[in-house]
Amino acid sequence: MSENEIEEPLEKGTSLWKDAWLRLRKNKMAMIGLWVVIFIFLTCFVFRWFLPQDPNAVALGNEFAPPSAQHWLGTDQLGRDMLTRILDGGQISLLVAIAATCLTVSIGIIYGGISGYVGGRADGVMMRIVDGLLAMPFLIVVILFRELIEVRVDLIGKFLTSEWGWDKDFVRRFSNIIPLLLAIAAFGWLTMSRIVRTQTAALKSGEFAEAARSLGLSHFRILFRHILPNMLGPVIIYATLTIPSFILYEATLSFIGLGVEPPNSSWGVLIKEGANYLESNVSMLIFPAVVFSVTLFAFNFLGDGLRDALDPKAAKD
Amino acid sequence: MLRFIFSRFLQTALVVFCLVSFTHVTIRMIPGNPFADEKAMQPHLRERVAEAFGLNESFGNQFVSWWSNVLTKGDFGLSTSLFGRSVNEILTSAFPVSLTLGLGAMFIALMVGIPSGVIASLRHNGWIDYGSMILAMVGICIPAFVLGPLFQLWIARNVSWLSSAGWERPADILLPALTLGLAVAAYVARLTRGGMLEVLSQDYIRTARAKGVPGHTIILRHALRPALLPVVTYLGPAFAAVITGSFVVETIFQIPGLGQHFVTAVTSKDYFLLPGLVLFYGCLMGIANLIVDIVLTILNPRLREA
Predict the structure, then answer these.
(1) DSSP collapsed to 3 states, A273-310
(2) What end-to-end distance do the CA atoms of chain A give, in Å?
(3) Residue of chain B whose alpha carbon sits nearest to that of A155
(4) DSSP for A118-169?
(5) In this complex, is the C-beta atom of A149 within 8 Å of any C-beta atom belonging to chain B?
(6) Which residues of B touch A244 (CB under 8 A)?
(7) Is the ipTM of this complex over 0.95?
(8) What is the reported pTM?
């Protein structure tokens, strides 16, 4: 913000972000969502490392144990500790969703920004391509694309282990989830690019953009330094709502066996296993399902709240 | 209108063509072949099989002949993973199953979603409103692959005329359709409520009230039609959601529909079944979107003039 600073401003202006934060704080459901999201992150990524249980330690003879002091959420069909399995699965689920969201946001901003800023025929062609890709059934193309790049990623993985001596297990964990998140991102950026394009097209004729042009700034600078910061609101809103939908896609793919595979586990994999042992032990389904649904719930309410806070025009009454 | 339909038809055809070509290329670029999983096959047998499926020709030739067979004879070729069965036979036997399931799910989605959305909007900010909207959010956040097993466990076990898996009796459709339809119902309810709230605050509704039009007539005749526009727009994506949702639901309830075939066709790298299925899905979605567009122009007079 470039107010010329007079000694003591009589009244302090509030920024858009401060206003938005005040509005968000009043929204109870959104705040609960925010705290739940923070809580889930802390348990999966921080609290997890203080737990002594090993999620991969097989204990035959202790299968389907009920919750106890040693295994807070009981054990699974191989006697492995459920709590740490759920937290480890959460790490993968959240990592895939967040990495894929970061990718979609980046691709969407660059593609949509260029399309909206350039305008004219290039814009028409670029948006036609987006329309065409949007008309394709998302899950089907993601499945196909994942199959397509999995082989390449596997080759890179083999190269890394054999030539550079990387740890095999480490590489294998990543060579499984990277194709998945790349595939989700490869077709997930379309709506984002549309949002960014509409905003850019509207903003580029604004006075501040004209001023920037008259100063002789480069197009790159005008687009990325002057126009893009003005649309952070919609981008953040959409990104927050993208994360839960990607978590859901990842889990759906893992459930039908086309997503995360052992040695990795994710919430989708755990729910799948739970569904297989439904008859003998419901809690194996219930625990991961509850954590999963609560996370989706929290992200959705946070996203809705952010929309109301950052985009007061769209907010109802 | 006819021009509009024609241009949309061409667009859809182009998209479907690209989609199916992408499928063909993808499935060929995955290393190994569809018979790699079979027990060690004698070389001369392998040769015969490859010959029978026409795999010795160049990929371009196979691609062209596949398309020409599809377009001229409606022949999708033979499935490479299910020996001896033609893709057409698989499609025709599995499609009615998936169609029944999908229609059932859509029926449930609309029958649950629209009324609850309308009621929520009429009690705006009341507890019914909050309750049903939280319920809708729960419906969105509890995915089919959690709901399905829970239904199997809690309902199918206790109700004698419902079975937890299979597709033999007419009652077998109920639980899968419910599993598939409830998430869509949740979206429909949210959209209906939003649309109704917007419409109910408009002047012409006040005019109708002032004229003394009875309440239910206002809602059913004046408010609901424009309020349902977002719902109709959503029906295209909803259809896609039902198709992809069927991958999951058909696996859970062991229903012999297209979704199960799709999953196995991907895992077993079926050279001809997979493109056939994708072509089929693409056409279905294209038709669904076209119908939605037409219905939208009928419902919304403003679109007709443009």
Answers:
(1) HHHHCCCCCCHHHHHHHHHHHHHHHHHHHHHHHHHHHH
(2) 30
(3) B31
(4) H-HHHHHHHHHHHHHHHTS-HHHHHHHHHHHHHHHHHHHHHHHHHHS---HH
(5) no
(6) 141
(7) no
(8) 0.87
